[in-house]
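Note to self: the last two entries modelled the partners one at a time, which told us nothing about the interface. This time every component goes in together.
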Amino acid sequence: MTTKQFMIVNRKAPYGTIYGWEALEVVLIAAAFEQDVSMAFLDDGVYQLKKGHQTKGIEIKAFEKTFGALEDYDVTKIYVDQESLTERGLTADDLTIPVEVLSRAEIGKRMEEQDIVLAF
Amino acid sequence: MLHIINKSPYDRPAFDSVLKTGEGTILLIEDGVYAAVKGGTAEAKLKTALGKFKIFALTPDIEARGFAERVIDGVTLIDYAGFVDLVAENKTSQTWL
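The predicted structure of the combined assembly is written out below.
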């Protein structure tokens, strides 16, 4: 099978819309087909990775466990935009999984390297 | 009147638009609750608004997003029953979609 480089770009906050979940579905499907998958989190998308989501009150499944399972699918290239974190008062320590924090310009370069970029 | 905001202040101008209306009561729900979180660039806006608006945020939405420990002082946290009370107490309410 041909392997292509996929980047899934996340710019939406979790739970307010379904985009975050749909992005994860695509990541898991692409990974199941042994594609080279990376994820980039920018703007409100960085909120998806915040530690300690307690979603019992809104009766929606939390993201945390699925993010934790990404490693089992060999999805380990998780890029987070530094500017977006800073604007929201967050640091890498606030996030639920290990990530690579990059400048927006560095994320732009990674985007250029992809065969396929899907935005959510 | 009661202004209900469900959009992130970092993504949409709904919060800014409400502040320009002058005074009243604001309820932050869903992605709107990010306006009530400490440490970001939106914190100063909310603090200024506290002089003119009573500001409430929906606890289940704050908890879902992992920010229960970082709510800005002066914001009142309420549950779904409190949401209903606010709507009943105010003569009119508007959701800034």
